């Protein structure tokens, strides 16, 4: 659905060139929620704005729904942008218009007739749970309600792709949860492909099917969330499972074991004791709820060296667990 090929975008600032996006390749499948995670300055916002060409890349191509947007004239690009909705961190609502008026605005720009426009606005406000706030102005709405208006407005043109620019970072935790649940529900009910950027790991854990980690304009890793967590040495896995510093335990091998696919894997410790007479000691652990199941990581200490524990470690790997010798 979304394909970025060798995307590059640089800016001139204070007499020097800053490369915000540096040769990025990214593919987002139709119907999935894909999160781009990174700290401030990683290039996330620039990347997102290149998808609908609000920022035109210096190099590379942007293909959405099989159409190379970078090759289109401005007139054709405006038409194709209607198929890409966007929601913003700070809502970007028109203060002089009611909730209904804000949702109606893009429909007016598209030339939709008054009767059809009114019906569509009512449908969208009902979809985001704001029918009773149709005549309220932004100043009369809570942060969560403002974002729901923003989401309804982004859906006005019946897009197949929805871009989310830090849509929950200005909200409190409870409201963030409700907005993420709404986005996931819209993804499933409408078949939306959602590309969101965030600096919050909780957003990725809660609703993303796949994710990309960016640093300094480049992709560090990208893929389906369970696959990334099961990948030895995964930077995303380290971000998600914070087990603290690896302890120094002379005469032992410290191992991190990751379980994905819905299980939590506590039984493997007892299995090692039965099969290999190994006294595995649990040092730390965490279980995370993901968009489609659970994933867990346990840090265990095994007596003896890694070489001495070769058979037990091979046994764990053959059981489908990701095993990393931490020390």
Based on the model shown, name its key terms.
327 residues; alpha/beta; Rossmann fold; Alpha-Beta Plaits; 2 domains; 6-stranded mixed sheet; 4-stranded antiparallel sheet; 11 helices; Methionine import ATP-binding protein MetN; transport; ATP hydrolysis activity
Strand order in the sheet with the most strands: 6-7-8-3-9-10
Number of domains: 2
Task: Find the CATH superfamily of the largest domain.
Answer: P-loop containing nucleotide triphosphate hydrolases
Low-confidence stretches: none
What is the number of E strands? 14
Secondary structure: helix percent: 25-40%
Distance between the termini: 42 Å
Strand residue content:
25-35%
The oligomeric state of the chains shown is single chain
Determine the number of helices (DSSP H or I, runs of at least 4 residues).
11
Please outline the major beta sheet.
Answer: 6 strands, mixed
Topology as H/E string? EEEHEEHEHHHEHEHEEHHEHEEHE
* CATH architecture name of the largest domain: 3-Layer(aba) Sandwich
Overall 3D shape: elongated
CATH hierarchy, class of the largest domain: Alpha Beta
CATH fold description of the largest domain: Rossmann fold
What would you report as the Rg, rounded to the nearest angstrom?
A: 23 Å
């Amino acid at each position: 659905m979304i394909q970025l090929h060798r995307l590059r975008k640089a800016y001139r600032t204070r007499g020097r060139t800053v490369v915000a996006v540096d040769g990025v390749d990214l593919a987002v499948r139709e119907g999935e929620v894909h999160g781009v995670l990174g700290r401030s300055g990683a290039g996330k916002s620039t990347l997102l704005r290149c998808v609908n060409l609000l920022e035109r890349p210096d190099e590379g191509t942007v293909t959405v729904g099989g159409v190379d947007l970078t090759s289109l004239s401005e007139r054709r690009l405006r038409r194709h942008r209607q198929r890409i909705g966007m929601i913003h961190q700070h809502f970007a609502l028109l203060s002089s218009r009611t909730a209904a008026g804000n949702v109606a605005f893009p429909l007016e720009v598209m030339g939709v007739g008054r009767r059809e426009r009114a019906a569509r606005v009512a449908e969208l406000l009902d979809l985001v749970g704001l029918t009773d706030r149709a005549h309220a102005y932004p100043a009369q709405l809570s942060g969560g309600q403002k974002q729901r208006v923003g989401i309804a407005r982004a859906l006005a043109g019946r897009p197949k792709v929805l871009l989310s620019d830090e849509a929950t970072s200005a909200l409190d935790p409870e409201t963030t949860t409700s907005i993420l649940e709404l986005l996931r529900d819209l993804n499933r009910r409408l078949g939306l492909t959602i590309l969101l950027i965030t600096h919050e790991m909780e957003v990725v854990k809660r609703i993303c099917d796949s994710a990309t980690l960016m640093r300094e304009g480049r992709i560090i890793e990208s893929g389906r969330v369970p696959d990334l967590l099961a990948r030895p040495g995964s930077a995303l896995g380290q971000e998600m499972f914070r087990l603290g510093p690896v302890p120094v335990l002379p005469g032992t091998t410290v191992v991190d074991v990751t379980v994905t696919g819905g299980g939590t894997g506590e039984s493997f410790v007892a299995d090692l004791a039965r099969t290999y007479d190994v006294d595995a000691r649990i040092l730390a652990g965490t279980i995370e709820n993901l968009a489609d199941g659970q994933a867990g990581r346990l840090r265990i200490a095994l007596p003896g060296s890694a070489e001495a524990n070769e058979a037990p470690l091979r046994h764990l790997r053959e059981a489908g667990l990701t095993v990393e010798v931490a020390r």
